[in-house]
Amino acid sequence: MKKLQAGKLSCTSILLLSVAAAAPQAIMAQSHVVSPGEIQNDVAASSAARQQNQKEVRDFLSSQEAKRAMQSAKIDPQQVTNAVSQLNNAELASLAARSAKAQKDFAAGTIDNHDLLLILVGLAALILIVVAVH
Q1: CA-to-CA separations, 37 to 27, 31, 42, 116, in angstroms, rounded
Q2: Distances (CA, A) of 35 to 31, 42, 61
Q3: 9-45 pLDDT, tens per residue?
Q4: Which of 60, 79, 45, 44 is CA-nearest to residue 120?
Q5: Residue 49's CB: how many other CB atoms inside 10 A?
Q6: In whole angstroms, what separates CA 65 from the centre of its chain?
Q7: What does the pLDDT look like over 46-90, one tens digit per residue?
Q8: 3-state DSSP call for residue 112?
């Protein structure tokens, strides 16, 4: 009787061990929810968008009007331009959209030089504050 129970126990143990050994292989065989190629494409798109946003903000800040506005407000234009790279993606996208809108409004005549200068000084101050908080 003890031999029969020992045999059942060893059979059960072997069965459990074989299931446990097969489980990781089955898990590894499953495909990923997101493929590595898709992840790579998303990272590349995000990087390209960030570079474009940085370019838009830097172009806006490097205009002669922007430099004059920052100097009149005693803000170092180079410090502001350097701080752009320290912004996170959401902050950078927001500032790029604001600078594009301000440039479009200025070109359309919706805002004048004085308003543009106020916007530029406000953006520069915002960039410096955000970077200082980080």
Answers
A1: 20, 13, 9, 43
A2: 8, 11, 39
A3: 565 656 555 555 555 555 555 556 878 888 888 888 8
A4: 60
A5: 14
A6: 29
A7: 889 999 999 999 998 888 888 888 888 888 988 988 899 999 999
A8: coil
Sign of CA dihedral 62, 65, 83, 92: negative
Question: What residues does each domain of the chain span?
Answer: 53-134
The Cβ of residue 122 has, within 10 Å, a number of other Cβ atoms equal to: 14
Alpha-carbon dihedral sign for residues 111, 112, 113, 118 = negative
Q: For residue 77, give every residue at least 6 positions away whose Cβ sits within 8 Å of its Cβ, in sequence order, or none.
A: 61, 62, 66, 67, 70, 71, 124
**Cβ atoms 72, 52 nearer than 8 A:** no
Q: Which residue has the higher pLDDT, 113 or 90?
A: 90
